[in-house]
Amino acid sequence: MSEPDFILFDLDNTLYPRDCGLFDRVDFLINRYLAEIVNIPTVEVDRLRRSYLENYGTTLNGLIVHHQVDPHHYLEYVHDVRLADYLVPNPDLAILLSELPGKKYIFSNASRQHCLRVLDYLGLNESFVAVFDINYFNFRPKPAAAIYRELITDIKVRPENGVMIDDMLVNLEPAAALGMATFHYNPSATLLVPLSGDTRQLNSMWQLPQLLADLP
């Protein structure tokens, strides 16, 4: 592709630093929800979360199947975080995003409300055309292949003309299978090296312009 027609961005741990602690707080609230709201014994929480992630893609989906939780209540509870304690506005990133080619979209397993709150706090709410959250896909999460196909259909693009960026490799696999260029966001990495298939490593958003320009 000469320039991508669209770029799909993950939100959490991708558009803000993992070490800021925001997602650690969300993780804590997920554990507390299981223990205090669903009444799962504390010693079982970690094991169940690993099992639900492996078998259902998210903790939420496992809770829906096995405990009939209200997904809206769950998402509101685990995203009830004071953003000012963890994030700082990022006007430089807003400028960078505005200069990248193609339309930009958020593609997240979080709730729409959480995505919009984070984007607004970072100063990125004008950077994206739309937000595709877990509610949009009726609580089916990445990496369920069907939702990638639905997203592509809904935004009326050809997947081979687009890019996806995510901090979780497993979430990039369906995008790559559809023909998208994929970037694994890994700021802890020190070298840009090829990963599985044609997935490229991205350890700073500031490398995006050059990496996009280098796409075949």
Description:
The chain has nine helices and six strands. It has a six-stranded parallel β-sheet with strand order 3-2-1-4-5-6, sandwiched between helices. Helices cover 44% and strands 12% of the residues. It folds into two domains: 6-16 and 89-213, Rossmann fold, CATH 3.40.50; 22-78, DNA polymerase, domain 1. Strand 4 (162-166), helix 8 and strand 5 form a beta-alpha-beta unit. By secondary structure, the chain is of the alpha/beta class.
Question: What is the element layout, followed by pairings?
Answer:
Blueprint: E1 6-9, H1 22-37, H2 42-56, H3 59-67, H4 71-78, H5 91-99, E2 103-107, H6 112-122, E3 130-132, H7 145-155, E4 162-166, H8 169-178, E5 181-185, E6 200-202, H9 208-213
Parallel strand pairs: 1-2, 1-4, 2-3, 4-5, 5-6
Relevant terms:
44% helix; DNA polymerase, domain 1; 12% strand; Rossmann fold; 216 residues; single chain; alpha/beta; globular; 6-stranded parallel sheet
Radius of gyration: 17 Å
Average of pLDDT: 94
CATH architecture of the largest domain: 3-Layer(aba) Sandwich
Strand-pairing-aware structural class: alpha/beta
Number of strands: 6
Name the CATH homologous superfamily of the largest domain: HAD superfamily/HAD-like
How many domains, as an integer?
2
CA-to-CA gap between the ends? 6 Å
A few lines on this structure:
The protein has 216 residues and is α/β, with parallel strands linked by helices. 44% of the residues lie in helices and 12% in strands. It has 2 domains: 6-16 and 89-213, HAD superfamily/HAD-like (Rossmann fold, 3-Layer(aba) Sandwich), CATH 3.40.50; 22-78, DNA polymerase, domain 1.
